[in-house]
Protein: Peptidyl-tRNA hydrolase
Amino acid sequence: MKLVVGLGNPGHKYVATRHNVGFQAVDLVARALETVIDRPFLRSLVGQGVYHGEKIILAKPQTYMNLSGEAVIRLLQWYKLDPPDLVVIYDDLDLEPGRLRIRDRGGAGGHRGVASIIRMLGAADFVRVRVGIGRPSARGPEVVDWVLGRPLPDEARAIDRALQVVPEVVWELVDGGVTAAMNKFNRREPV
Structure:
């Protein structure tokens, strides 16, 4: 069993923001599994499906980004899963729009949602699928305004193309494991 969590902020005003690409990604995985993520459960919206015989729990924490760990820890405990069974999908300022990176452990890289998860789990050995959103220019908006803003049309197209690949990433994580997924997707140029 895998718990696939997309990070974002609840509420209509955040729907199409850069910081909500995690929510968009798990929605695409749900669509590929022919399910929806709509059941309120343990401070998240959840859904589930099966891929090649493996149950996949999909979740969108409703705690707001900076408290994501509060929802994730509850879900892991309820489903009796360990951190290596967790896949977290989120936005990354340090990757250009359209770039995907998969990691099997590491720090938060300044991402407060990931920091919250690490703090609550007391562990950092979970899979991360990072979706590039780029960084504002030196004369651009502050970082908080950037991540809570909507991408420009070219950025939105690049991000959307990357998001379309996320279900394939999840399938590879299930079928081949994290090393196979990193080898297959980390070398790709932005789509």
Q: What stands out?
A: The longest strand covers residues 44-51. The chain has six helices and seven strands. The CA atoms of residues 101 and 130 lie 5 Å apart. The chain has a mean pLDDT of 95.
